[in-house]
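Severity: low
Component: inverse-folding endpoint
Summary: output formatting inconsistent between runs
Steps to reproduce: submit the following structure tokens with default settings.
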């Protein structure tokens, strides 16, 4: 508990182009709840190298992601926005936690199984222990809450198990974190296949709205979005395409599905798709403008990165030192 506030930790990977799903599902919620917590929002570049990356590209994307955190409305004076690789404690704690995590637990992780199947030529140990690094991220800051998507719930459960296991041996060292699952727009689906999550790695670019898409592109992608057979704007389970579009519309306008149904009563899909496109454009435009402004201001961003790296190092060092003592590592003798 810092300043009487609970601690919140979350992170995102800088791989692929960020999509509307990343924004509506994660970033926007972060901004909404950030005031209530002492927050740490990390660009988890150490996680990214579990899959082969082009170094220059990773560096560029990581900086763009960090810039986007700020453009989305996270004030870097109040929120610790930083690169995971700037804080050596993540790797150090991950090593220790590796020794408190079972092979069987990691073998059960569905994301590992998926990624191993997808990158069969590079099933490295880092891919396997990825969830332990994630546990280290969270436990290093004694986070009380962690906003995550459903796909990361299994990793969060593992984090809790590791924390409890460690605490049972050594006493109360770690705060056991809770998941924070956002409400509306938490899961934006592909515009081309509404059974799949909108993904930055989708092969079909028409399925995803990228955060840097210009208005024409956004409108075109919504015009082409897959809809259903009923030909009316109704929010029900049998109509996954329109369900997704209503979710997106509501997340962008703040309206409820009922209000949306009423607004488009008696009107066709064409009208509605146009309206969703416009709603999305009106969210993306200011975001893109802020992003462009920030990107021009190199000194400002460098200052933010420097200050927040220090801040994250400071908080993480406290936990790390405590853990090192508990497991029996000696201090460097003074003198
Ligand atoms: N694994 C998460 C993802 O791919 C990113 C992540 C890394 C994370 N460390 C974290 C999320 C800690 C929340 C908390 O989405």
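Observed output (run 2 of 3):
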């Amino acid at each position: 508990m810092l300043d009487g506030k609970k601690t919140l930790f979350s992170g995102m990977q800088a791989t692929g182009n960020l999509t509307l799903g990343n924004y509506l599902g994660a970033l926007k919620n972060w901004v909404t709840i950030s005031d209530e917590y002492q927050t740490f929002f990390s660009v988890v570049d150490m996680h990214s190298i579990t899959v082969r990356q082009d170094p220059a590209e990773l560096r560029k994307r990581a900086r763009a992601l960090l810039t986007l955190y700020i453009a989305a409305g996270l004030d870097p004076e109040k929120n610790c926005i930083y690169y995971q690789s700037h804080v050596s404690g993540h790797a150090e704690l991950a090593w220790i936690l590796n020794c408190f995590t079972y092979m069987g637990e990691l073998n059960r992780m569905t994301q590992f199984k998926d990624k191993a199947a997808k990158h069969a030529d590079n099933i490295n140990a880092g891919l396997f222990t990825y969830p332990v690094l994630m546990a280290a991220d969270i436990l290093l800051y004694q986070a009380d809450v962690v906003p995550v998507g459903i796909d990361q719930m299994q990793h969060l459960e593992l984090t809790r198990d590791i924390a409890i296991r460690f605490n049972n041996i050594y006493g109360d060292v770690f705060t056991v974190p809770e998941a924070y699952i956002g409400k509306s727009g938490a899961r934006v689906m592909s515009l081309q296949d509404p059974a799949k999550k909108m993904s930055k790695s989708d092969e079909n670019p028409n399925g995803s709205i990228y955060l840097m898409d210009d208005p024409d592109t956004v409108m075109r992608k919504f015009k082409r979005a897959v809809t259903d057979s009923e030909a009316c704007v109704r929010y029900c389970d049998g109509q996954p395409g329109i369900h997704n579009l209503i979710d997106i519309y509501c997340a962008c306008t703040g309206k409820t599905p009922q209000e949306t149904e009423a607004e488009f009563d008696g009107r066709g899909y064409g009208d509605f798709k146009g309206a969703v496109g416009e709603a999305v454009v009106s969210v993306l435009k200011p975001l893109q403008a802020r992003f462009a402004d920030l990107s021009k201001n190199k000194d400002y961003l460098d200052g933010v990165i420097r200050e927040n790296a220090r801040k994250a190092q400071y908080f993480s060092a406290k936990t790390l030192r405590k853990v090192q003592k508990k497991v029996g590592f000696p201090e460097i003798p003074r003198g």
